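Example with several molecule types.
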Amino acid sequence: MENRYCVIMCGGVGSRFWPFSKTAVPKQFLDFFGTGRTLLQMTYDRISSIIPARNILALTNERYAPLVKQQLPDLDDEQILLEPDRRNTAPCIAWSAYHIRAFNPDALILVTPSDHLILKDEEFRNSVVRGFEFVRDNRSALLTMGIKPNRPETGYGYIQVGGKSLDSIAPVKTFTEKPNIELAKVFLESGEFVWNAGIFMWSANAIIDAFHECAPDISMRFDKGLGKFGTDKETEFIKREFPACPNISVDFAVMEKYKDVHVQCVDIGWSDLGSWGAFYEKSPKTENGNVFRNCKTVINDCQNNIFAAKKEKLIVASGLKDYIVADNDDILLICPLSEEQKIKQYVNEVKANFGDKYL
Amino acid sequence: MENRYCVIMCGGVGSRFWPFSKTAVPKQFLDFFGTGRTLLQMTYDRISSIIPARNILALTNERYAPLVKQQLPDLDDEQILLEPDRRNTAPCIAWSAYHIRAFNPDALILVTPSDHLILKDEEFRNSVVRGFEFVRDNRSALLTMGIKPNRPETGYGYIQVGGKSLDSIAPVKTFTEKPNIELAKVFLESGEFVWNAGIFMWSANAIIDAFHECAPDISMRFDKGLGKFGTDKETEFIKREFPACPNISVDFAVMEKYKDVHVQCVDIGWSDLGSWGAFYEKSPKTENGNVFRNCKTVINDCQNNIFAAKKEKLIVASGLKDYIVADNDDILLICPLSEEQKIKQYVNEVKANFGDKYL
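Resulting C-alpha cells for the full complex:
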C-alpha cells in the first residue's frame, strides 16, 4: 500500500465545455452534476481509500493552485506540483515520476485525468488495485486502461489489443489516434479495439526508463535535476527547465513507441465528458428527455434538451427541442445539440469580437 | 404656461414583461432600449419643455420612491406622491387632482403613463399643447388621446369617435374594453374607432366634478381632506383614506360614464410596450429580423428573435427562429414569440414552485 501513488492531472483548460468551463475555472473544478462535489473532488474521492493520502499528488498549472488547495484541502502544499507553463502531458508526467522516485524508488503510480466521469467507482478501484499488482510484478511495463467501445466514436484514440481476450490485461498491438467514422465503425465491429481512457499505471522506474528510450529530449532535462527533486531546489529547477521541454502528449512521446505497453480492459462507466453530447448521454433525464444541471426550471413543451446553469438561476423555457441551453453568469449559449462541434467556432468569434473577456 | 401640470403615473408592476420587468424594478424604471434613459425618464424628458418643472408630479407606490428620486433627481420630495396601497388608476388620479387644485384652482392637468413608448415626441408635445387649450376653453371636458389602429389588436381598449373626422378633437361615442378578434377587425375596418392610449387631459375642477358625478364613493373620501391637501397633514390623511378607496380604473369609474368626454386623435408613434410582440414591432432589427436589447451577441442561423439581456451579458445563439430570449440576472426566459400570452401562466408556475423570489 505505501508504494502506491496517484498523480491527478488537473491543469487543463477544458475549452469544449464553454461557457461552463472557462479559462478561469476549467471543467475539472466545476460541480458538473450539481452533486456538491467537483469533478476533481470526485476523482480524489474515488481513489482516496486505496492510496495513502500523503501519496496523492495534484499536478496543475500555477494559476489553478488556489482552486486545487480550496477543493482538496487535505493536500499539503508539497503535494501540489505546479507547472510553470503548459506543455501537454509528457513533461508533467515525467516530472511527477522523477519527483515521486526521489521519495520512493519502489513507487507505483496511477496517473489520472481529473475531468472524466467514472460511474462505477468500485470496479474502477478494483481495476486500479489489479493494475498496481501488474506493474509491481512487471517492472518495465506501462499499463493503460481501455474502455470497450459502444459506438463508433471519432473523438477518442483507439488501442488495438493483442492476445486473445479483452477480459484481462493484454499487450497493446497498436495505438490509433482519432479515426474517421468509417475506420471507427471497422474498429467497433472488429472487437479488437478499445478506447484509450488516458488513465495510466506504471512504476516510477518503468516510466523514467521509457522516457529515456523514447523521449530522451525530455528525460535529459529532468536528469539534470537529479538530487534536486524533493528538495527546496526543485521549484527553481522546474521553473527553469520545464518550459524548455517539448509540448507533447505522453501518448505520442512514449506510449506509441515503447516496447512494453499493456492495456487493461475495464468496464467502469467511463466518459471523458468531452462534449455536451457525452454529458447528455451520462446524465439522468426527465420523461421528456430533458437534462437539468444545477438550475431551477419551469419547462413546457420541451424535449431532449440540456438546461445547464448556476444554482439559483431560474430557467423558464417553452418550445425547445434538442438544444443546449447553458448559462454561466455573463454568458448564455443556446444552440442545437447537433451543432455542438461548432461551439469552438463560436468561441473563436467571441474572441475575435470581444477579446479574452468571455473565455 | 404656469397653469399646466403633469402627473406621471409610475406605480405599476409591469408583469407582462417578466423577467425583464420584475416587482422590484418594474418596466418604467428600466432602460428598455439601452439608450441610457429609462421609460420613466423618457416620459419626463418628453414633457419637460412644455410644462414647468415644479408642476410635474410623479405618482407612485411607496416602495418605488427611491427609484423615482434616483431617476428624476430634478423632482423635489413634494413632487412625488406616494400611494400607500395599490388601487388602480381612479383613486390616484382623484388624489392628484385634489392635491394640485389646492395649489392652483385653475390647474390644467396632463396624466400620462410612464411605461409607454412615444416615437414622435414633437407631435406628442403639439397634441398636449392643443389639449391644454381645449380643456382650458372647455372647462367641464375630459380629454383622452386616441391612436389610429393599424391592426385588429385585442389587447387594447377602443374608443368610438363621434362627429365627422378622426383628425381633430371630437366627442367620444362609446368606450369598448378589449374586444375579441372578430370585433377588433370590425372596429379597424369601420374607421370609427381609435385605441385608448390612457393619456388624459382635464382641468382639476373638471375631473373632480366628474368624480362627484360618476364615482362619489371616491370623491367622498377626498372631500374629507379639503384643507389638508398641500399641507403637512396630507400624508397622514392619505395613509388613512387612500386604502379605503375602491380598486378601480379611471376608465371604468369615470370616463365611460361621464357626459363630456372628448378624444383627440393623434399620430405620435405610440406603443404601450405591453407585450414582447409590441416591443419587437417597435425595435430596430438586423437584416435577419433579430432584435437585440442591451446585449453582446454572437448569432448564427437565427431569424426574427428578440434577444434581451443586461449590458455585459454575452449571448451566443444558433438555430433559433421566432423566439424570445430574455435574460435578467437570475432568470432566463426562452419561449416562442407566438406564445408570449403564456408568459403570465409561466409566472404563475414560477410563483407556485418558488414563491415570490423570482417575481
